[in-house]
Design a protein that fits this description.
It is a multi-pass membrane protein. One of its GO terms (biological process) is potassium ion transport. It comes from Corynebacterium stationis. The chain crosses the membrane at residues 52-68, 107-132. Pfam families: Ion_trans_2, TrkA_N. The protein is an alpha/beta fold. It has 3 domains: 2-30 and 149-274, NAD(P)-binding Rossmann-like Domain (Rossmann fold, 3-Layer(aba) Sandwich), CATH 3.40.50; 44-126, Helix Hairpins, CATH 1.10.287.70; 301-367, Regulator of K+ conductance, C-terminal domain (Alpha-Beta Plaits, 2-Layer Sandwich), CATH 3.30.70. It contains 13 helices and 11 strands. It has helices at residues 2-15, 44-68, 79-90, 103-124, 126-148, 160-171, 186-194, 207-212, 228-241, 257-263, 271-284, 286-296, 361-367, and strands at 34-35, 153-156, 179-183, 198-201, 220-223, 246-251, 267-270, 302-308, 324-330, 333-336, 350-356. The strands form 2 sheets. A 7-stranded mixed sheet has the order 1-4-3-2-5-6-7, sandwiched between helices. Strand 5, helix 9 and strand 6 form a beta-alpha-beta unit. Helix 2 (44-68) crosses helix 3 (79-90) and helix 11 (271-284) crosses helix 12. The model is unreliable at 15-19 (pLDDT under 50).
Length: 368
């Protein structure tokens, strides 16, 4: 079986190896691939008003500079003359009716008015400059993001399941900046960006896409593509790049569950059969389904959470605690609360319990 999986990995690596590795490209070449959400989005009218304000301020500044040095020009200048000279100079019209004649006036033109003229021209072509500066800003943003990205969560596929998993992560206090979404649907990526998530355009089956998403440094990877075969390919590619990352995958058919486990997934959720069981259960006991949905819905009523055992709880039976405990996590094993192994809590245990949305998150953080 291990040899079969190894041969499968080799074939997959060959079939999905791109002609040009995205991970080897410079940051400015990834602008159309990686999108880091912007903190502020100004309207075009506001940007135009800001440019006009700066241009008008520049004219006023040069006007006063020329007026204070009015004795160095070819004729005696009034304030209106200084404003006139400033406007024709900054716009590079230069009629030549007023010119600096003294050494001091020419020095002021060289040191002050010429740079101001260049700045004024930059403001006039602000649309072109805006595109250039935006690309430079995005390149710098991507470069900084790639350098600092560590211990994050990568979500492959931002459909219904992917969006739901992200909502659960955000409800558990994970920062949006620590979540990276990979998808080939531009509309889905735009929706993810709207929620403050970093997005990467591409297929989760390709190594170069996974590399620029920082999978090698990720703490966890959620695999939620639309088909089971894609999920297997994604899991194999992720496990090859990130041997220690926690991989949680979704599969539609339970018959394919073992393939994902053999490919390296730590946990597999069967979506279609789980939904089918809930539908069948809803026909008999709909209130139970409502409670299950409440437990699975983030930031609404009850939810299933995890916390460490407190010092004064060591040695206690988890069924006698104030919290409603469902299971005990001990050395990586899940022990149900109704079994003998969970009769007494030990140091280092973690509890799966039912948390209410009014519970203070700082209580759990303090225990960490």
């Amino acid at each position: 079986m291990a040899q079969r999986v190894k041969r499968m990995k080799s074939r997959i690596a060959e079939s999905f190896r791109p002609g040009i590795e995205l991970s080897s490209q410079p940051d400015h070449a990834l602008i159309d691939v990686i999108t880091v959400p912007r903190n502020d989005v100004a309207s075009p009218w506001r940007q135009l008003a800001k440019r006009l304000m700066w241009a008008f301020s520049l004219v006023i500044f040069v006007t006063f500079v020329v007026y204070f040095d009015r004795e160095g020009y070819s004729e005696e200048l009034t304030l209106i003359d200084a404003a006139y000279y400033s406007s024709v100079s900054l716009t590079t019209v230069g009629y030549g009716d007023i010119v600096p004649v003294t050494q001091q006036a020419r020095l002021v033109n060289l040191v002050v008015i010429t740079p101001a003229r260049l700045a004024f021209l930059v403001l006039l072509v602000g649309a072109t400059l805006s595109v250039l500066t935006d690309r430079a800003r995005r390149t710098f943003q991507i470069s900084r993001w790639r350098r600092t990205l560590r211990n994050h969560t990568v979500v492959i596929g931002y459909g219904t399941k992917g969006a739901g998993s992200v909502a659960a992560l955000l409800a558990d206090g994970i920062s949006p900046a620590q979540i990276v979404v990979i998808d080939q649907d531009r509309a889905a990526l735009a929706n993810a960006e709207h929620h403050g998530l970093v997005t990467v355009f591409g297929s989760g089956t390709k190594n170069d896409v996974l590399k620029i998403a920082g999978v090698a440094h990720a703490e966890a990877v959620v695999v939620t593509p639309s088909t089971d075969d894609t999920a297997v390919l994604c899991t194999l590619a992720v496990r090859e790049l990130a041997p220690s990352a926690k991989i949680v995958a979704s599969v539609r058919e339970s018959a394919n569950r073992h393939l994902l486990l053999q490919s390296g997934a730590d946990s597999v959720v069967t979506s279609a059969e789980t939904a089918g069981r809930l539908l069948g259960l809803a026909t008999v006991t709909p209130t139970v389904v409502e409670m299950m949905e409440d437990l699975l819905s983030p930031n609404e009523g009850f939810s299933v959470a995890e916390r460490p055992v407190r010092e004064y709880e060591v040695g206690s039976n988890p069924r006698h605690l104030v919290d409603i405990v469902l299971a005990v996590l001990r050395n990586g094993d899940l022990i149900r609360v109704d079994t003998a192994g969970a009769s007494a809590l030990k140091p280092g245990d973690r509890l799966l319990y039912i948390k209410h949305d009014t519970e203070d998150p700082s209580e759990i953080l303090d225990d960490e």
